[in-house]
Amino acid sequence: MLEWIPELNWMRSILTLLLTSIFLLYWYTRIPTSMPRNIPTVPIYISLLGLWSDMGQDTIYDRWLRAPLEKHGAVKIWFAGRWNVLATRPQFLVDMFRHEDVYAKAGSQKKIPWSVIAALVGDNIINSHGETWRLFTSIMKPGLQRRITDSGPLLEKSRTFVDVLLEEQGRLGDGGGVLVNPIIQRWALSCMGISFMNIDLEALERPGQRLEELQTIIKKTLFKPLFFNFPDLDRYPSIFRQRKAAFAIMQEFGDLLCSTVRQRSANHSTNTKTPNPDGDQVVDYLDRALQENRITEEQYRANIKVTFLTAHENAQQLLNSTFWVLGTNTRIQEKLRAEILATGIEHPSTDLVNSLPYLFAVILELLRLYPPVSQLINRVTTAPATLGGEISIPDHTWVGWNAFGVHTDPNIWGADARQFIPERWGSDVKSIQGTMRSRTTQCHFIAFNAHSRKCLGQGFAVLQMKVLLFEMVRKIEWVVDPGYELKLTSGGIMAPLGLRAIVREREVCLKEGD
Ligand code: HEM
């Protein structure tokens, strides 16, 4: 009888839809019963905060993750559409990083192969496992770890970077600080190009090129919180039109990058500045491997793209943090300047920058407090495992780590863990290297990861920063714009957002220039 009352029918439909949605959401986000019970669970809404708030990842960590992680060493956390185990206790990390057979690398191409991020990175040297990884490493390692004896090309890019900063400050006058990130990105792209792609992209000299524009778009697209947390939505690009556009951008980037590097031999004749002082670069090794059919075209593209991305993005964000730390802590900037000026040298060689202890220690301390790769969950158990002999993890569970948490844990770094103290690393290059090595082996310092899958570009990254800082500190002084309030990125790569710095040329350099 009631069936005939239209309002009731309508309400029943709404109620059914609502209950079905609630049930589906519950089913999608429920914690599998097989997940470890002896570690706490971070409530799911913490992972979803990005949907309605732009809180920085340091704040999120301090409020909701620090206490359980410092107490239990690991937590269950929602990330990329599933529940994962996230660890920070060094004993758990040593186990995870030393047993790559059990905690196997499995990046987005394995976890969410249909997604935009998987379309971007593919199966590459960073996220592959086993035979494939060994093949990629055998091809690329000589290029990634080639010894750079000539600091000239990096120095030239550092000088252009400083000139562009000063030009921009000149244009602004007293109207505030320079927005540093876009200029930093151009510096990072240039250094990456001349060091790994064997091509001078001239990103500093010719701003606004499409490859540079695409980087800005890609970084914004990848970390969209809705799709980051619910990557299943990427399965439906016809419903979510912005994801259709995102797939197109990833394709455009891959095509443009590969055609650019393939044209480099032709460019060499017209671009005499392109340096290749220290032998073949990664791109040359990859070219040969493709010609010899050791890798497929798809593998070639994935590795070119990941080298391009990783070799510029991490340095870019580390330099943003450098502007913040040294621009608010001018005493440290001054101390660094004193060390650099004491050399009396304007054109430092690789050996010279490598001989400066404070410069090295400042860079390590930056990496400790502002690790660009602050969190990664890209390993999967290949069998039931017991992490650190304490946490039972079922087969096929994703596990990961949080470097910011490890590096700021007072149980590991002492009561002053949150303070920027370069001296903690040592006072001479040898002791600093020793501290870095032992802290890395113990997984107290994991900015470059540790053990079998540690960063292969680490040597280059530190050298590039040394050369740049040498030139910056010698030539300019900077402070953070007083109107700028620190906000770190809310997820993904860690760095200050939208930092503005007031830059001026040092008096002495001005006089020398006259
Ligand atoms: C400040 C700069 C850098 C930081 C903080 C950094 C950090 C890292 C981290 C944390 C990993 C481990 C990733 C994982 O566990 O999945 C890694 C791996 C890697 N990085 Fe870097 N990286 C930097 C610069 C570079 C540069 C310049 C290159 C050169 C292309 C590079 C190439 C690689 C490669 C090839 C791997 C994979 C190693 C393997 O799995 O065998 N990185 N890096």
Automatic annotation (TrEMBL):
Transmembrane segments: 12-29
Pfam families on file: p450
Keywords carried by this UniProt record: Heme, Iron, Membrane, Metal-binding, Monooxygenase, Oxidoreductase, Transmembrane, Transmembrane helix
Gene Ontology terms describing biological process: mycotoxin biosynthetic process
Coiled coil location: none
Binding site for heme: 455
InterPro entries: Cyt_P450 (IPR001128), Cyt_P450_E_grp-IV (IPR002403), Cyt_P450_sf (IPR036396), Cytochrome_P450_monoxygenase (IPR050121)
Cofactor or coenzyme needed: heme
Molecular function GO terms recorded: heme binding; iron ion binding; monooxygenase activity; oxidoreductase activity, acting on paired donors, with incorporation or reduction of molecular oxygen
Family: Belongs to the cytochrome P450 family.
Protein name according to UniProt: Cytochrome monooxygenase xanG
Organism, as annotated: Penicillium daleae
